[in-house]
């Protein structure tokens, strides 16, 4: 009597309905190998992960016949542990959260968003930065200016003007008119209507630029003698160190 296809390992099979194949699944996730069950992967029917293994196979296989998912394999073990035992990870929270979003596992997403790390980022910092006009664009502008000045230099600096209120914005413009520099090279942040202050915004700027791999520091910018405003009220120098 011949062996029917339903007894063949799922990881070796690329055709036919997944409903009729072996419940044991072999996976290659970004080079990391996993073995689990079909029911574990389909535990949350509305998720993208479940859809990958519903009906006809929707994934390519590697040379060994394992289903291949082109995502970071390191963090998939936390996804799998949650599916197996409902255990919410306590390590690599930010990275696991990205994977939970990709696989669209809604219960895990919600539980991770309640963690201090994600809650603080989403509800605190991100909500604050949403009140700062053109924040992301200004971060990219700072990086472009710094890179343009990096030729044959160890460091390059970017002058930032930070204003919290409309009144400060007007005073900042007067100060800019008195500065002996190219005004186009000054990056302006603000004003905004939210509780965090200037020091909080400066920390956010440094945090987000460092997250892109740059080595950066900042300090109040002291203008030359004769400047008719206290420049450190508005202006800060961000220093990029290249080597």
UniProtKB/TrEMBL annotation:
CDD domains in the record: BTB_POZ_KCTD14
Show where the BTB domain sits. Answer: 23-120
Which terms does the UniProt entry file under GO BP?
protein homooligomerization
Superkingdom as given in the UniProt entry? Eukaryota
User: Which InterPro entries does the annotation name?
Assistant: BTB/POZ_dom (IPR000210), KCTD7/14_C (IPR057890), SKP1/BTB/POZ_sf (IPR011333), T1-type_BTB (IPR003131)
What protein name is recorded for this chain?
A: KCD14 protein
| Upper lineage | Eukaryota, Metazoa, Chordata, Craniata, Vertebrata
